[in-house]
Every structure is written in C-alpha cells, then in structure tokens.
Model the fold of this input.
Amino acid sequence: MAKAATPKRRSSPKLKKDEALKYYRDMVLIRRFEERAGQLYGMGKIAGFCHLYIGQEAVVTGMQACLKEGDQVITGYRDHGHMLACDMDPRGVMAELTGRAGGYSRGKGGSMHMFSREKNFFGGHGIVGAQVPIGTGLAFSNKYLGKDNVCLAYFGDGAANQGQVYEAFNMASLWELPVIYVIENNMYAMGTSVERHASETELYKRGISFEIAGEEVDGMDVYAVKKAGEKAVKHARSGRGPYILEMKTYRYRGHSMSDPAKYRKREEVDDIRSHNDPIDGLKEQIVAQNIASEEDLKAIDKEIRAIVKDAADFSLESPEPDPAELWTDVLLPVEA
Amino acid sequence: MAVDILMPALSPTMEEGTLAKWLKGEGDKVEAGDVIAEIETDKATMEVEAVDEGTLAKILIPEGTEGVKVNAVIAVLTEDGEDASAVSAPAESDVEKVTPVAEPEVLEAQAAADAPAAPALTNPDIPEGTTFTKTVLRDALRDAMAEEMRRDETVFVMGEEVAEYQGAYKVTRELLQEFGPRRVVDTPITEHGFAGLGVGAAFGGLRPIVEFMTFNFAMQAIDQIINSAAKTLYMSGGQMGCPIVFRGPNAAASRVGAQHSQDYAAWYGHVPGLKVVAPWDAGSAKALLKSAIRDPNPVVFLEHELLYGLEYDVPDLEDYTLPIGKAAVIRKGTDVTLVGYSRMVGFAMDAAEQLAAEGISAEVIDLRSIRPLDMDTIVQSAMKTNRLVTAEEGWKHMGVGGEIDAGGPEQGLDSLDAPRMRVPQNEVPLPYAGNLEDMSLPNAGDIVAAAKAVCEGM
Ligand SMILES: Cc1ncc(C[n+]2csc(CCOP(=O)(O)OP(=O)(O)O)c2C)c(N)n1
Ligand SMILES: [Mg+2]
Done:
C-alpha cells in the first residue's frame, strides 16, 4: 500500500473573503461536475474512457489563480477540472463528454481530447506524457514572440517516467523557457503506486540533473498550492526558466470508470477523504475565520448544483453532430 | 424529491451485471461518495458510490440478483425530510424497461453476432473428431502465454499493469501467481524504454513478450520495434536475431476517440524484418501466439479489445500451433471472396450469412497474418469466385486491401472479371461521437454492400 498523502498541515493564512469564496466555489464546481459526469457515464450517456478529478481540485484551482491573461495551460486526459478552472463553459465541457454538437470539439474529441483556443487551454491529451514537450513548445513560442506569458504543463506521477518528459526538461532549462511543470502526484499510475513505478519517488527532484528547481507542495491545500504557484510563475515569467512543482494529492475514484481499484484499501481512500479533503479543509478555515457562515456556503453549493444540472441538461439536449462533420477538420485549406 | 439509483455501466462494454451486495440498508443515510453496493461486471467486482445524498428509502433489486440491466432502477433515495414510505414499489418490468443507450453495447452486440457457427471451418486444419472447449479470446491468449512459459524458462512477460493488476484487459490474468514477479514484470509507463529493453533482453538470450496496453501506445516505441528489433538481424549479417513478441489490443475499442483507436496492421506490415499477425477467433489466436513466441524473429501480434470477451470453440489439442503466414478459408463459397483480418473476419462471416439469404454464395478468408501475406490462398479463391472484397479497420490509403489488390495481378489474379472492392475505415481520425464513430468504422453491412456491388449482373 502506498504511504498516505501528506499529513494534514494546512497553511493558515488570514483569508481574504473574495479569494476564499472563489476557491471554494471553483472547487465545489469541479467536484459536483465530476460526480455528475460519473453518473452520466453510469447511465451510458458518456462513453469510452472518463477519468474523474475528484480529490485533486485544490491543485488546479490554486495554480490557475496564479495566471494572467494569455498564459497557457495543457494537461493529460484527466482534464475536466482544468477546463472548468480555465473558465471554460461547463455546458460545452459536459456536451463534449456526451459527444454532442454543443461540445467544445463539437463531439469529435471526447473526454480526453478537448481544447479552447479562446481560453488558452491546449488540451486534453490521451497519450501519457505527450503534453509535456508540447507545453514546453508553448513556452518556447512565448519566448520567441517576446511575450511574458508562461505555460503550465500538468502531468501525473506515472507520466513523470516517460522519456520525452526529460527531453523536454533539458531543452526548457537549456533555453530558459517559461514553463511550470506541475506534477500531480496522486500516488498511483492506474494500479501502480509511486513506490512500484519510480526509483526516485520524490518527483520534485527529477529536475536536478537539468538544473531545474523543484518543490514539494501539499496539493490538498489550495492556499499552499497558490503560494508555491506564485513563486514558480514569478520565476518563469521573469525569464529564469522552468520550475517543477510536485503536488502531493490523491484521487478518490478509480483511474477511470472501469477500474475496480483493488490495488488500494478502501480505508486509505476514506482516511484521506475524511481528514484531508481540499474542500472540507477550506470550508473549515472559512467558517473558523468567520469569512462566511455554513448557510452562506450552502447557498453557494446550491448555485453550483444548478449550474451543473444546467450543464448536464444541455449535454443531453444538444443534438449529435451533423453527419457531415465526419469529414470536416482533417486538413485546413491552403490560402490562395 | 426521490431520486432513482440506476444500475451503472462501469465499463464501455458492460450491458448487465450481478448486484452482488448491498452495503447500505433501507433507512440508512447516504452521503455523496459513500459506497452503497458492489456489483460484478464482465471484468471485475466494482463498488457503486452514491452521487446524491439522502436516505436509502427502498432497495428494489435484492443482492445476489444476476443479469441486472444497465440503467435499471436498483434503489430509491429520498432527500432529507422526505417520507420514505411515500415511495411506491416499482413495477416488476422495471428491470427490463430501461435499455442501454450507449453505442458500445451496440458494437459489442454486433461483435457477439460474429461468434463462429462451425468450429471445424474456422480452423480447417483441425483433425476430424477433435473436441472443443468454449473459451473467451482473452483466456485463450493467456493460456498460450502460460503454456509457452511452462515450456521455455526464457519466456517472460513485461508491460504496464501486466502483473499485480492482472492486465489492463485481463489478458495476463493469474500469470503472476503462477510464474512470479521475475517472469511477469510490471513496468513504469515508458514504452520506448521497455520496448528497447525487451529488444536487448532478446539479444541477451531471452524471449520477451512485451505487452502494450494498447498498440496506440506502441507509437512511443515504434523506433525500437522497427529500427532495432526488425533490422538488426540484417545489419549484423545474420548474427543477431531478435526473438520477441510485441502484443496488445489494436484498432478501435469503443468510443475512446482518435488517439486510442488505430489499426496498425498496414504500418507494421510495411516493414521487412517483422512478422505481423492479426488473428480473429480464440482457437487460431492461441495457436498463432504460441508460434509467435517460438518464432526466432520479432513478431507484432495485433489483438482486438472488442473480441477479448467473445467466446469461441478452442480445439482440445495438446500444443496446437498454426504457421504464421498462412491464411485460412473459413467458409466455402462460389460467387465472391471476402477477405479480412481480426474483427473484420467476424463481420465477413456475418455478411456471408446475409448474402446467402439473398442467393449470393460468399467464400470467407481469415488472413491471420499480415506479413507474410498469404497471396496464394487469396488468389486460389478469387480465381474460383472471380470477385474480391477486402475489409480492414485501417484507412484505405496505402492499406492492406490495396496491397492485396496490387499483389494479386503479380500472382495471376489478372483474370478477375469484376472490380475488386475495399471496405476500410473512412479517411478521418476516429471521431468520439457515437453517430460519427458508427459511420466511420466498417461493418458487416458495408461488406454486404460491397459484395453486392462486385456481384452486380452476376
Ligand atoms: C503512452 C501511454 N501509455 C499508456 C497509456 C494508458 N494510461 C492512461 S493513463 C495511465 C496512468 C497514468 O498515471 P499518472 O500519470 O499517474 O496520471 P493519473 O492517471 O494518476 O492522473 C495509463 C497507463 C496511455 N494513455 N498512454
Ligand atoms: Mg497518478
């Protein structure tokens, strides 16, 4: 059995009301959205693979809070939370999950392959590790074009073993590219625990031989994420090259919907959920510091439920793509 | 408001399952995320978690019930404060009422129809009087590996989730238990690395079976497969053979989108120095995998996820192997020859049945091997029927069907008096949406239409 996620050691900053409530809202939106996606999958409305982000909400919520207009984001297939955190429309995300015309890829991509140029979200990639060099290339384009934007490249602990990750690390450091590598270490790659797949399990050290600074972060604490994220983003934005953040986090659900998750004990999941949940943790702090009452938070919950229900309804009402869509988007026409 | 809890589909191919156990009872409070029941699917036992919170008011399907259809109402949840007794008992028919809506079930149902009718024909070389055991494809492949591992100490299996997880698609089930972690090796997600490591191990005297979770991920490793495994024998002037099997599911699964749904038969079929096998039924798959493991050359062994769960008759023959590079006529006919490999063979058999009902007699050839390609068997059949239809899940451009069409004339197929037709996947990356995926992939209906077209004016 893997060693349990970082023991509870919450940062206890004085919370600002707007900020705290925004994080709460963003995390609850992801949680409720994912629960609904799981339900729609169970009903056969979502097909294929569907990887839920439940448990990891603080990572993307805290990191996205460090970005500014024009910064880019790229991740793997566990991507629904990232899209919501990029402010993409829950309707469009859910409708892509159901494979409908109203989805971000007009039904042609599915859960693992979704993009939004408008929101600078570059996918949604089904091949483990592929997003890492691509994210590095986005950072290359920023530097080339003289923009002060950074790219966040998210990937898992399992992905951290792919060779192309290290090829990218080397180039990023050599050329001082503005990219932040966010390793979402949820302790398992499918059924294989970090101890069983990594010789160096402290993944933030994986950049050492490339001279990339790295840091371990409590990924269950949105404020800890935000703090580390700001430092890393500042580093990259100021032209000092890449940075690695290893987020210690946990996924509550199976790897995908069809994973019976026999490789870990139910108690391990329950323990983290009841003692280290990112949403409950923030809620406690909000209430303890009198930022908002339980009732205020309940009102937010209700609002979120309505947004998610609306997204689900939309995703079922939206029609399947027009048959003509089969043939579009294979190649672009050459400009005359 | 009362909320119906439905029997969930926990895998793309699940249609029904057994409600093994209730972990909450009537009257219990339930929170989102609580495990309320256990169900057994086609692959494993899974926990069902609550999505909504409330009180479990009524259990409609008792534990132990088998064959509960996906989406049937299994229990009713009431929100706090609601009167549980207000929930009325459901009609008996509820279990049947809700039919699955997802495309995967449709695909699986089609695949199920492909099960062979006459075992003796699917393996024409089997001696008369042989008995058969019904075996699903995944178990037949497993048995092939187990038998070869018992026979030869240097054979070992390596890949992602092959050992402790028992295989992502359960093809390596129980191998770890029998052979231990020295010979059943879980790898990190490093395809390029472990494929290359496999090649080195083969040079070093072992016989690796490298499992790719799917062949889509072998694209990470294709350099080692082609540049190292396939070419070294030649480059070393015959000194360095590479006895290795690269195996795993190939082609489309069910609604998993463009990056996870490609047929690599033509890709690998292009390469001198490789053998490429793409079997259909469990009997020939087992026999061919055993041959592949014994082969002194690198063999790319393309399986199909949508066939893994299908049952076929496997002959009860000790150490049954089939030669790589030999196709099989698995249904005799006189009017048109249908050629396919892997899942397309099932569709071709289905098409032949439909064509028979319309007075067209189709002969069906299971290619089994892509490289070497058994043109002799195809030419012999086509000389007799004078009409040829090839089916593949890959794209038409530079595809297997094109090679057969071109290879034919060189070997005396030029007497063909009707146009040959190819039934491929449409020339687009595979879309996710159910309707578009259906349009894109070839099926029995497409083969029937092509056969009729070449038989026009017969
Ligand atoms: C190249 C490649 N190999 C294998 C897979 C199958 N696969 C998908 S996700 C996954 C596990 C990845 O684990 P991790 O990187 O830790 O991310 P997590 O799923 O935990 O978010 C595997 C093996 C794949 N999609 N691509
Ligand atoms: Mg992981």
